[in-house]
Specification:
Distance between the termini: 26 Å
Shape: globular
Strand content: 25-35%
Helix content: 10-25%
Largest sheet: 8 strands, mixed
Strand order of the largest sheet: 37-38-41-39-43-44-45-46
Structural class: mainly beta
Radius of gyration: 27 Å
Low-confidence stretches: 1-19
Mean pLDDT: 94
């Protein structure tokens, strides 16, 4: 027997000394070795190129937060969560250290940040000379800046920043930042009323207003008062010399962004009446242009409360939406307005109109282009060149237009394809800092070519590429493509003619590191030398596999085998981890996903940790749900799901690595929903692990995932797709794990609680683990460790034993 498998079985029986509780709150448990050691090891730094692409910022993430941090009191207001002590978002991505690397020489310099400081919102200045960051303390957020030349950092102001509506600061010029701050005189937080002042009353006048099952909404007048208290900001400009200028009146600002020439500010603020049915981004909002000194120049729009936006991803709010500055112009705004009143079911030749307005903002807006679909994105270049993206989710169509902003009639389509067709994806146009410091289309020195980079999906797996795009003809020339045994992708072009690029290169055995690649000669020079964060995982092998399901749709997955395993040692117990996806064509559903050359190390509550316990893992077996033509994918969801799972089981058994009678299945969110359905409608799996799922679709009656029909339009679909309906048919044991503070639309904790009650009432084997204070994605070290403890124990109990009888009850 493989020594690793033998050790894992011994460890598993040691775990059985802690019996499964029938109903109790217990202490957090640690997963078996070496999982805990890997969890506590520092991960690889994140990397962000400077605007001029001459420096790399290496940002070291903090260790997993403790449950004391995650479980500290927070407020749920208008779909957002806020830390009432610091006015920061409840969920922050925290960094512990910053280092810069000179791309030309490879020399590094550490930024001298305060010892033990928690850093967020790191931002390069437009000239690349400074890095601004927010220091997140227990009771405040403050603005700091570090010098790239010296590494020294300093606090720019003692003003407390307001992070309730997102990043509190952004650069205006390389010498100043505009920030949202806490109002100086706001006083103490509103006290909770000891005696109710009256009932909460709502009334509908009969107009349809179906909305998704949003979380964390306002519930009463006190919530409204708290929302005003914590979300109201004062806008200020803070210069690098420490000078502070206060601008305008305080309000609940959701957007404050300077024009590229730093003479104006685009502001957006929400106001009453608030709603108890939709989140902050659908509240009434005023959009206005200010001067950089805070003078109100023009109100662009004052959009009313949006409680009646239609259902589906093609539905948008009526009227003004999504304003942005043109990155290539000193002060020109662009925004969209729906030509179909935001209703995707209305008949309309064109759906969206893009309008533009330039300083001094006294003229009438001009039409830039009318689009057949919804506006998706824009890449600005010059007065004569821009790239506009549009999309229509219902048909999966995406288009890219090349337009002349100075002559909008001069426009043509450069890409028109299905968003599902990964093989035909031309990649993304690369950008770089323009003369105004904003990201614009990167072109060669002559201005005749642009550049595209992408994943390079193909039947042999992803192979990233770099292409040249001829602006006049649309001709594409391949400049470079990643070659086996590496997976290498372009991060930034160093010079405008694309002779050199910064790339991120990895292989199955090589840690991802950054290189300067000579695109012509192929020579690469290392910029970083990161080491393996989890060497305990080094012996694990992986393989990209393909196979077909019974209807001919090709499927793919990544097969992982534990270190030291050889097929001569016999078959392994296996675990499948998957997430279904909907498609409008079988051809798109058949495309291969993934690459055989990726460096993989588990983190967080990853299912891949099971490889250290003697299991094989089939990661991401594709579970396509296809609805071609007028057919809806979910009309045959169960049948297609089971067929995909059966094909995956047959494949690993045929390969001689898996024991058909010892396979478990699991997933998170929609993958948890999938897991419960597979156990309800098949006998393919010996046990299941479902994390943070939704199991009763009648509790999400106005659509879910990509299902756009309401419950009343598709009762049979909602009932048939709900594993809750078939709780009496589930025979395999199922482990349910859920964050008790789940913040994801539709997957509120009651979903797992009610499903568990149904299973228990029908005499099924199930276990429910509620993780205190955890959102949809688990954060605390204790919670993640305990989740992995539960997963290993469940698999060791119900999947690993060779006989049909669990090793213990």
């Amino acid at each position: 027997m493989n020594p690793l498998i033998a050790r894992s079985i011994t460890a598993a029986f040691a775990l059985f000394s802690i019996p499964f509780a029938l109903a109790a709150q217990t202490v957090y448990q640690q997963p078996p070795a070496p999982i805990a050691q890997i969890l506590d090891a520092p991960g690889l730094p994140g990397v962000l190129p400077s605007p001029g692409r001459d420096w790399l910022l290496l940002a070291q993430s903090a260790a997993l937060p403790t449950i004391a941090e995650v479980g500290a009191p927070f407020l749920r207001l208008a779909g957002e969560r806020v830390n009432p002590r610091s006015n920061a978002p409840w969920r922050e991505s925290v960094l512990m250290g910053l280092t810069v690397k000179d791309v030309a020489t490879g020399a590094g310099r550490a930024m001298q940040t305060p010892a033990g400081a928690r850093l967020t919102n790191t931002m390069w200045s437009p000239d690349g000379a400074h890095i601004a960051f927010v220091l997140s303390a227990d009771t405040s957020l403050t603005l700091w800046v570090a010098s790239v030349a010296t590494g020294a950092s300093r606090q720019l102001s003692n003003l407390r920043l307001n992070g309730a509506t997102g990043a509190p600061c952004s650069w205006t010029t390389s010498a100043a930042l505009v920030c949202k701050t806490i109002v100086r005189a706001r006083g103490a937080a509103p006290a909770e009323a000891m005696i109710p002042t009256g009932p909460v009353i709502e009334e509908t006048a009969g107009a349809a207003a179906g909305n998704p099952t949003f979380e964390d909404l306002l519930k009463n007048a006190r919530d409204e008062t708290l929302f005003d208290y914590y979300f109201t900001s004062q806008v200020v400009v803070i210069s690098l010399d420490g000078t502070v200028r206060t601008l305008g009146a305080s309000a609940v600002y959701t957007l404050v962004r300077s024009s590229p020439d730093a003479r104006y500010l685009l502001t957006q603020s929400v106001h009453r009446p608030y709603s108890y049915h939709v989140p902050l981004n659908r509240f009434p909002k005023r959009t206005a242009i200010w001067t950089i000194d805070g003078a109100d120049v023009r109100e662009l729009a004052n959009v009313e409360l949006q409680e009646r936006i239609g259902l589906g991803s093609d539905a948008v709010e009526a009227g003004f939406r999504d304003p942005q500055w043109r990155a290539d112009a000193p002060a020109t705004l662009v925004w969209a307005e729906a030509l179909d009143n935001g209703d995707p079911n209305a008949k309309a030749a064109k759906r969206d109109r893009l309008l533009t307005l330039s300083a001094p903002f006294t003229a009438a807006p001009k039409t830039l282009v009318d689009l057949e679909y919804r506006w998706a994105d824009a890449t600005w270049a010059t007065d004569n060149l821009a790239l506009i993206g549009e999309r229509w989710r219902k048909t999966r169509r995406v288009r890219t237009w090349q337009i002349n902003p100075s002559n909008p009639a001069d426009a043509h389509v450069v890409f028109d394809r299905s968003s599902e067709d990964r093989y035909a994806n031309p990649g993304d146009f690369l950008t770089a800092a323009g003369t105004l410091g904003r990201q614009v289309l990167l072109t060669n020195r002559a201005g005749t070519s642009a550049y595209l980079a992408g994943a390079g999906a193909s039947a042999e797996g992803d192979r990233p590429f770099l292409d040249r795009f001829d602006i006049a003809t649309g001709k594409i020339t391949r400049l470079w493509r990643s070659e086996a045994p590496f997976y290498e992708q372009v991060i930034a072009i160093i010079d405008r003619d694309a002779a050199r690029a910064v790339t991120r290169r990895e292989s199955v055995k090589d840690v991802p590191n950054y290189f300067v690649r000579d695109v012509v000669s192929g020579k690469s020079t290392a910029l970083t030398n990161f080491t393996d964060p989890a060497p305990q995982f080094a012996g694990v092998t992986s393989q990209l596999i393909t196979y077909k399901r019974s209807d001919g749709v090709q499927l793919s997955a990544t097969l992982y085998l534990p270190a030291g395993y050889d097929k001569s040692q016999g078959t392994l117990p296996f675990f499948f981890w998957a997430y279904p996806q909907e498609f409008k064509s079988a051809a798109a559903a058949s495309q291969v996903i993934g690459s055989p050359y990726r460096f993989t190390r588990p983190s967080g509550p990853s299912h891949l940790f099971l490889l250290t316990q003697g299991y094989g893992v089939l990661d991401g077996p594709t579970m396509p749900i296809v609805g071609e033509g007028d057919k809806e994918p979910n009309d045959t969801y169960v049948q297609q799901l089971v067929a995909s799972a059966k094909a995956a089981v047959d494949k690993v058994v045929e390969m001689g690595v898996a024991d058909r009678d010892r396979i478990g299945v699991g997933g998170h969110s929609y993958g948890a929903f999938m897991t419960a359905n597979l156990l309800a409608h098949s006998k393919l799996f010996r046990a299941g692990i479902a994390r943070s799922g939704a199991y009763n679709r009648t509790l999400t009656p106005f659509g879910f995932q990509n299902e756009e029909r309401t419950y009343w339009q598709g009762r049979d679909v909602y009932q048939t797709m709900s594993p809750f309906t078939f709780a009496d048919s589930i025979s395999a044991p199922i482990l349910l794990i859920h964050g008790a503070a789940d913040d994801n639309t539709g997957t509120y904790p009651e979903q797992s609680e009610r499903f568990f009650a149904a299973l228990k009432g029908n005499g099924k084997k199930a276990r429910l683990v509620m993780l205190p204070a955890e959102p949809h994605g688990y954060r605390a070290r204790e919670s993640i460790g305990h989740t992995l403890f539960e997963m290993v124990k469940w698999m060791d109990t119900y999947v690993k034993p060779r006989s049909g009888v669990p090793a213990t009850e």
